Amino acid sequence: MSLYDIDEPLTSTARPLTDSVLTIRIIKSFPYRNVKNHILPHVDLKTTTAKQLFDTIVSTINTTGGLRPYRNVPYDTLKIYTHAHGSKTMNLVINMDHDDDWILDLKNADTPLFQYGIENETEISIFNKEQYEEFKKNPEEKW
Question: What family is this protein classified in (predicted)?
Answer without folding.
Answer: Belongs to the UPF0538 family.
